[in-house]
């Protein structure tokens, strides 16, 4: 056939510790897992036009694509949370022109960069056609970062279709269109994002500069052991171990995540809403004992299942749960229309 009619899409999530890829095929409204892969690679946010960083990342990604036998070039990628400014604002239902002005005004208030240096985008979240009030999701990303990402994907031989914030991909893979209010907590290597979702829409998205690697460094420093051993301690013992000292060190790093989550719950409940669940994602969420540690918030807290809406080969049944947390974003990206 002359034109490619591939219904396959590739989701790429470049995290600070790991690059993840997932290829899905859409078939009669269903998603089939074609392949996935991840590789440890300390990536730097490409905020400067650093040719070395761009070509290095492209090289690592290209090798990963070959190893995972990825067959499509159509890629949807996420933008790292720590460089994206996300805001959801309430507005009266304005005309498009009025909306544009109002959004630029709002962006000037919260984006700590000159507006000429960022790419602004927004989407209107309307609960019903007749609603007098609308919510607008505004994102601002430094334009150089977008340019560098696009350059990197081209170098890796891919055809970028869209760049998206992590929160939207997480909602797609973990929640679909569920209507209740919940918080997705993605614990990565150096970042944790808290995303409050209600009626299928993102309401609040926050990024905290702590993650699994922060916990590992805490253990390594306090026990004076190598980062490698500290990582092993963390994975083996988690928050439920017998050694008194280790869990204490971990809790120091985790406290801020739990406190911020508790704050979001309070803010939302003060406005009359009810949070029904805390859903964990990100490989940092594999920390043993994490859900129990959050239990004093009084809300059901558990690991999400990003493969809920995906069909896959039976033989992967035991392997997938061990990697699924880390794949949550890449999966959601590949599910994008
Ligand atoms: N079994 C496990 N138990 C506890 N922690 C784990 C486990 N497996 C991986 N981790 C931790 O998960 C973290 C990496 O998570 P992930 O791959 O989601 O991060 P990332 O996306 O690369 O980083 P970021 O989102 O911060 O940019 C590491 O800190 C690692 O130590
Ligand atoms: Mg991540």
Automatic annotation (TrEMBL):
One of its GO terms (biological process) is cell division. It comes from Candidatus Doudnabacteria bacterium RIFCSPLOWO2_02_FULL_48_13. This is SHS2 domain-containing protein. Residues 9-174 form the SHS2 domain.
